[in-house]
Amino acid sequence: MEDGGRRPRMATRDPKAQAVYAISVAAELTGTGQQNLRLYERKGLLEPRRTEGGTRRYSDNDLVTLQRITELLTQGLNLTGIRLVLALEAENTALKNQLAHGPSRTGTRKPTRARPDTEATGPQRP
Predict the structure, then answer these.
(1) Longest Cα pair distance anywhere in the chain, in angstroms?
(2) CA neighbours within 13 Å on the CB side: how many for 48?
(3) CA 49, CA 75: separation in Å to the nearest integer?
(4) Which CATH number goes with the domain that contains 73?
(5) Residues 6 or more apart in contact with residue 16 via CB below 8 angstroms
(6) Where does the HTH merR-type domain lie (predicted)?
(7) Which residue range forms the structural domain that includes residue 51?
């Protein structure tokens, strides 16, 4: 192989993470306008991949996020609230994955005991 024996990146990626949809297709599939998709990107709710020419490409995972954004908008959240909810949901998923796969070596700490001056009575004042 001329490329040093490396496999193409597509072979190792999650198929749902492949950015294949143009902005017009993503807007149609999710029932929202193209300007809304651009706004969501500016507000940090979504980060579509870009082609070498700069064209936005959306993945199936992005479409799921867009559907979640639509649900949260319907429930009355503003874009700032939605950004927080999405961040908390992502953090919650990551923590669940950590629990499911056991503690990592870098994240394992021994439990610490409270310092003697803060046990039972709280901090001592001079």
Answers:
(1) 74
(2) 27
(3) 28
(4) 1.10.1660.10
(5) 59, 60, 61
(6) 20-88
(7) 11-83
